[in-house]
């Protein structure tokens, strides 16, 4: 056997050994970078640098920023990574004034809260003051001595269930039609606990029912426009829609 022919590849190709060494060094550098990134991440998560610094709140008119923040459960001690948008949204919607809520984390330390509140759909007279009634069927503790004329007086609803149904229908109504209503009275009868009576700003009386009220009231403007001014009567919007003239 010719021993001269038995040589290592490293001896035959000196550059190969150097290339392997460089490759190993690069791999080590990558591993070290990953390691330090992980360590930095752990330090960041456990340090005050990851705590919420700013809470941006938009869309609130009935609640103050402090009240919304308290309801959300977020504070300056809250870790930005522990903020659960879906869970906080549900917390916010537990308020009777909040219809929808969205929560977003904005790194590094900001939380954005956007709210959509229930509309003011009426007023309820209590102890000589008018409490704003929301589309949720709840009133807010901001009583006024007089109504602002932007929503009707809602009266006679001694049953909370029917008040909520009425509020929901008023919420669904076209605001331009809702503003035509001056007063809403609950007039339940044995065969129809949903019966209501309305007094309109144009002088007409409307006899209707809570069920599908928002949809049925869409025809009111066209019916009222066909009635001769000064004519007294009742506009029925129950099973059908028609005008009953009163002498």
List keywords for this structure.
single chain, alpha/beta, Ubiquitin-like (UB roll), Rossmann fold, 2 domains, 6-stranded mixed β-sheet, 3-stranded mixed β-sheet, 8 helices
Would you mind describing this structure in some detail?
With 247 residues, the protein is an alpha/beta fold. It folds into two domains: 51-117, membrane protein fhac (Ubiquitin-like (UB roll)); 120-245, Rossmann fold (3-Layer(aba) Sandwich), CATH 3.40.50.10960. It is 32% helix and 26% strand. The protein is built from eight helices and eleven strands. It has helices at 9-12, 14-46, 65-72, 85-92, 160-172, 175-178, 213-216, 220-225, and strands at 54-58, 98-106, 110-117, 120-126, 129-134, 153-155, 181-186, 195-200, 205-209, 233-237, 241-245. The strands form three sheets. Strands 6-7-8-9-10-11 form a six-stranded mixed sheet. A three-stranded mixed sheet has the order 1-3-2. Strands 4-5 form a two-stranded antiparallel ribbon. A hairpin with a 2-residue loop joins strand 4 (120-126) and strand 5. The longest helix has 33 residues, at 14-46. It is elongated and about 115 Å long. The termini are far apart. The mean pLDDT is 85.
CA(first)-CA(last) distance? 133 Å
Derived structural class = alpha/beta
What multimeric state do the chains show? single chain
CATH class of the largest domain: Alpha Beta
Number of domains: 2
Largest sheet: 6 strands, mixed
Radius of gyration: 34 Å
Task: Name the shape in a single word.
Answer: elongated
Number of strands: 11
Mean pLDDT equals: 85
Q: Per CATH, what is the topology of the largest domain?
A: Rossmann fold
Strand content: 25-35%
Q: What is the spatial order of strands in the main beta sheet?
A: 6-7-8-9-10-11
Please give the share of residues in helix.
Answer: 25-40%
> Helical segment tally?
8
CATH architecture of the largest domain: 3-Layer(aba) Sandwich
SSE run: HHEHHEEEEEHHEEEHHEE
Low-confidence stretches: none
